[in-house]
UniProtKB/TrEMBL annotation:
Keyword Amino-acid biosynthesis listed: no
The name this protein goes by in its record: UPF0102 protein PKOR_05530
Keywords of the record: Endonuclease, Hydrolase, Nuclease
Keyword Disulfide bond applies: no
Pfam families: UPF0102
InterPro entries in the cross-refs: Restrct_endonuc-II-like, tRNA_endonuc-like_dom_sf, UPF0102_YraN-like
Family statement drawn from the similarity comment of this UniProt entry: Belongs to the UPF0102 family.
A GO molecular function held by the record: nucleic acid binding
Domain of life: Bacteria
HAMAP family named among the record's database cross-references: UPF0102
Length: 120
């Protein structure tokens, strides 16, 4: 059981690293990874000009059990919105905000699917 949890965490971290590199290649600046507020976590907070982007990263080793992005449910969205709200207040952000999902399938090479404006 403990080895499965470690493998799951390792898979998630690999996916987040691929997503962060992908965003940087697309001209985003990664401001923070794994931002926590209470029980909520934002995987990546990035900025591009006057746009602040909160990114939920979902990673799988294959698509045998569905696509990674299908795992983002309304509860996860609520948690992400809560953490984003706190971050916006802390930073006194006055510009545009967007919520994205990046799904990563750890094939060779990894498949990355960036869904902009995934929810509000």
């Amino acid at each position: 059981m403990a080895s499965q949890i470690r493998k799951h965490l390792h898979t998630g971290q690999l996916g987040e690293n691929h997503a962060a590199a992908y965003l940087q290649q697309k001209g985003y600046t990664v401001l923070q990874q794994n931002y926590r507020y209470k029980r909520a976590e934002v995987d990546i907070i990035a900025r591009k000009a006057d746009l602040l982007v909160f990114v939920e990263v979902k990673t799988r080793t294959s698509n045998n059990y569905g696509y990674p992005e299908e795992a983002v449910n309304s509860k996860k969205e609520e948690m992400l919105l809560s953490a984003a709200e706190e971050y916006i207040l802390q930073e006194e952000w006055q510009h545009e905000v967007r919520f994205d999902i990046i799904s990563v399938t750890l094939t060779s090479p990894p498949e990355i699917h960036h869904i902009e404006d995934a929810f509000y």
